[in-house]
Amino acid sequence: MKEELLREYARLAVRMGVNLQKGQKLVVRAGVDSAYFVRLVTEEAYAAGARDVIVHWSDEKIARERYLHAENDVFDEAYPWQVQMFDLLSAEGAAFLSVSSSDPAAFEGVDPDRIRRFSVAYGKANEKFYARLMASRIPWSIVAIPCEAWAKKVFPGKSGEEAVKLLWEAIFRSVRIKDGGDAVGEWTAHCSRLTDQAKKLNDYKFAALRYENVLGTRLTVELPEGYLFAGGSEKDGRGVDFIANMPTEEVFSAPKRDGVNGVVCSSKPLVLNGNLVEGIRLTLKDGRIVEAKAERGEEYLRAEIDIDEGAHYLGEVALVPYHSPISESGILFYDTLFDENASCHFAFGEAYPTCVEGGAELSKEELLARGINAESNTHVDFMVGTSDLSITGVTRDGKEIPVFVNGDFAF
Ligand code: ZN
Ligand code: ZN
């Protein structure tokens, strides 16, 4: 891929993604195969005035070997020095950038219980760090770059080299980078469109959203009083704008924890902890998932829902038009960062505190009292949008307003 486009992507991640400020530290979390891109990110970060750049490396192949062969009890603990690293750096206000590059089949055949136990242990140990991320107290962002295994899954039948090239092109289109283009300008306009859409949804003060489509989704999603939809950029604890996901096409909020009833069916495959889960069908009663089925990967889906009680409740409701740019590309990315931005989605697990008015300042207990799902060590998005999806908003005085008609916004 062309050096100047890669550099522009690195610059976009640093300047708009985490929006690194002069004198701030940057923590980059990335796989070892992404080193060539992380080096560019590091150069851009120092050019932006970074105080220091700290890289936390990982490798899926090594993680897989560990899942398969390490002693059974190591999955019940997280190492304190790792916990301390994220805790100290997030407490002092560092920015966190993740460079994702995942093989959708990385953990195929791994014991789902080992994955579940490690998620529980890791999530609990890193609770303070995750709370700062979830409440947007510190800036964070996720971007993705291709790896060969991922690219070949997206473009089957192509050689590794060709598939990687095609995936780079698809990623660049989705993050609005092109030869001679003005990515920063385009992102600024894009974020303001998303903010406008969110404001419309907030102004209606809906009591509930009713979903219906041909896959069998029949779901009523109540919204808590004082809910806030948001989209595009958000503000960190110091009031500085950052963009948590690149790409992003969604406006999102949180459902009322105990106010979701009916059946919801997934419309795209979900890669969950390195395993493919397809054909999800969840039944919810008073907010709780009482039945979880999937045509493929059901054991991995169940293991994730069994992480804790909060994982049995929805923590996000997100709206994305069927005719959004990523969806119109017709590419199934097998990566949630992209697929969730091509489709309406929900997440089970923890809600973002900022989804209710004043939420960033509230404790978990206060957030629960405000009606959102504030306590879980997971947050898993799954895609539910279709070309025929209808969503009807019901206002607090009982008026019905079309929100989605045939898969797209009605306003
Ligand atoms: Zn989302
Ligand atoms: Zn989400």
Tally of separate helices = 13
- Specify the biggest β-sheet: 8 strands, antiparallel
Instruction: List ligands, each type once.
Output: zinc ion
Helix content: 25-40%
Instruction: Report the portion of residues in β strands.
Output: 15-25%
Rg result: 20 Å
Strand order of the largest sheet: 15-14-11-6-5-19-20-21
Termini separation comes to: 39 Å
Regions with pLDDT < 50 over 5+ consecutive residues? none
**Which class best fits the helix and strand makeup?**
alpha+beta
Q: Count the strands?
A: 21
Taken together, the total number of domains comes to 2
Mean pLDDT: 97
Identify the overall geometry.
globular
Q: What labels would you give this structure?
A:
binds zinc ion; 24% strand; 411 residues; Thermophilic metalloprotease-like; five-stranded antiparallel sheet; 21 strands; alpha+beta; globular; eight-stranded antiparallel sheet; 2 domains
Structure explained in plain terms:
There is one protein chain. The longest helix has 21 residues, at 183-203. The strands form 5 sheets. The chain has an 8-stranded antiparallel beta sheet with strand order 15-14-11-6-5-19-20-21. It has a 5-stranded antiparallel beta sheet with strand order 7-10-16-17-18, covered by helices on one side. The chain has 2 domains: 3-174, Thermophilic metalloprotease-like, CATH 3.40.1830; 204-230 and 248-409, no CATH class. The protein has 411 residues and is α+β, with helices and mostly antiparallel strands. It has helices spanning 3-17, 35-47, 60-69, 80-91, 112-125, 127-134, 148-154, 160-174, 183-203, 298-305, 325-328, 336-339, 364-369; strands at residues 25-31, 52-58, 95-100, 140-144, 206-212, 218-222, 230-231, 234-235, 241-242, 251-253, 260-265, 270-272, 275-277, 281-285, 288-293, 314-319, 345-349, 379-383, 390-395, 400-405, 408-409. Helix 5 runs parallel beside helix 10. Bound molecules: zinc ion (2 copies). The site of one zinc ion has 4 residues, from strand 18.
